[in-house]
Please model this.
Amino acid sequence: MSPLMTVERATKHYKTQTGSVHALENLNLEIEKGEFICILGPSGCGKSTLLWAMSGLHELTSGQVVLNGTPVTSPRPEIGMIFQEANLLPWRNLEQNILFPFEIKKIDPAPAQPRIKRLLEEVGLAGFENKFPRELSGGMQQRASIVRCLSYDPEVILMDEPFGALDAFTRDEMNLLIQRLWMETGKTIIFVTHNVSEAIFLADRVVVLTPRPGRLAHIFPVDLPRPRTIEMTFEPDFIRSVIEIKRTIETGVYTPQAAD
Amino acid sequence: MASELRDTIPTFGESGEGGDEVDLTNWSALTSSNLASSWRDIGLIALVAVIVIGLAEFAVKAFNIKPYILPAPSAIGRTLVTRFPDLFWPHMKITLMELGIGFVIGAAIGLVLAAVVTQFPLVEKIITPYILLLVTTPMIALVPLLILRFGFNSIPRIIAVALAVGPMVMINSSTGFRRTDLAKIALAKSYGASTLQIFTKIRFPLALPMIIVGLMVGAIFGMLTAVGAEMVGGKNGLGNQLMYWSSMVKMENFYAIILLLALMGVSIYIFFYWFGKKYASWQA
Ligand SMILES: Nc1ncnc2c1ncn2[C@@H]1O[C@H](COP(=O)(O)OP(=O)(O)O)[C@@H](O)[C@H]1O
Ligand SMILES: [Mg+2]
Model:
C-alpha cells in the first residue's frame, strides 16, 4: 500500500534583503494513513516551513508534497490546519467561527451539525456557542479551533505548535484530548512541536529535524501502548526516549546508545 | 501587498500589524470616551447640564449682559422650540439634504479608494500626499469657485461636503485596510478562500472599526463644511440663516441655530458610537 502523504526532496530557500535563508534541505518523509506524526526540532529549524508547504499555503523551492497521489500545490479540502494560536475571528461568536469553513467552502453545514454538537460536547464547549473569543480562555479558544478543523471532516490534520502558547497544565489536558480525538476519528495527524515529551507522548513516530537547514536527523518510532497517560511520561522508558531524542537534537545525528 | 502570504509564516500573538499606526484619529476616540452607560450616569449628566445652564442664565441676568451679545439660555431655548417648525426646520432640511447626499457620495468614493489603494502599496504612496492635501485644505475655500461654476444652489455645497468627507473616510479606512492579519488570511486560504472572500470575510471586518471612525469624523467635518458653504453664499440652509439673523441682530434666533447645530453634531457622534458598539465591539 502506498503512503497517504509523501514529502519528496523538500528544499526551501527564503529570499531576504540580505541574501537567502536555507530553511529546509532535501527532506523526505512518508506518512501512512491514520498515523500520528510529530515533527520535532529546535526553534528556527524549519518545522513551520515544512508544515506550511504540506498545507499547500506556501511553495517549496524544490521538491514536492504528494497527497492521495496528487501533488499539493494549493490548499486542499482533505487538509485541515490548526495554528499556533487558536486564530479565531474575534468578530464572530464561537458558533459562527466553527461554521466559517463551511461559509468559505460554500457547503451546507446542516449535515455536519450533529457532529459539531458532539465535538463541542467532547471538548467541553457545549453551551458556549454564543460566546465571543475574547470571553474564552486560551485553552478553550484552542479547543474551539480544533472543533472548527474537525467540523468539516478533513482527512489530514496539520498542527503547528498548537499548544505552544498554553501553560503546562492546559497543555497536558490538550494533549490528552488530541490523543482521544485521534483515536476516535482515525485521522492522520502531523503535529509540529519543539517539546520533546509532547512529541513522544503523542506520536507513533517522532521525526527529528536538524538545526538550520532542516534536514532529517532521525525518525524515532514510539511503541508505548495507547491510550497514553500523563503518568507514563515519568516512567524510565519514556525518559530514556527523551534523553535519546535530546541527544540527537543536540548533535544533529542519531547515535544508538552505547550500553549504559 | 498581493504577495504578503507568499512565504511569511505569521508570528502569532502580535496580530493586526499596521493597526497601531498614528493617524488623524484612531479607534480610541470611540471607545475611550465614556458615553452614559446607566440611568444613574444619565441623571448625573443631566443634573450637571441643568446647573451649567442655570448658572449661565443667572450670569446673563446678574451682569446685565445685552441680549444682542448673549440672550438668556431660557430665551434661546424658547425660541428654538417655538420657532423650530416654521423658522428653522425648512432650512435644517436643506442642510441635512446637502450633508446626506455629500456624505454618501464622499464616503462611498473614500471607502472604495481605500479598499483598492491599500492593495497596491506603491499607488498608495503616490496618492497619499494628495489625499493629505484634501484633508488639510478647508473645502469651504473652494465654494466661491464652485458657485461661479454651478450657481447659488445646493450643488456647490454638496460637492464641498463630498470633498470634505471623502478624504477623511479614505484616510481612516486605509489605516483599517492596512492592518492585514496574516494568520487570519492564512486561515481563510487554508479553506480555499478566493480573494473576494478574503476581502469580505477578513479584511473588511478587520477594517470596520477604523471605517466607522472615518465615517464619524467625515460626517462631522461634512456638517461643518455644509454650514460653512451655506455661509459663503445662497439663500437657504442653517449657515445662511446664521448670517441672516446675526445681521438682523436677532440673537435668540442666531443662538437657537447654534444650539441646533450642536445637537446635530452630538447626534452624529452618538449614532456612530452606537453603530461601532453594535458592529465592531469586538475591538478593544
Ligand atoms: N519569510 C521568511 N523569510 C526569511 N526567512 C524565513 C522566513 N520564514 C522563516 N524563515 C527562516 O527560516 C528558518 C526556519 O523557519 P521556521 O520554519 O519558521 O522554523 P520553526 O518553525 O522550526 O521555528 C528560520 O531560520 C527562519 O528565520
Ligand atoms: Mg514555527
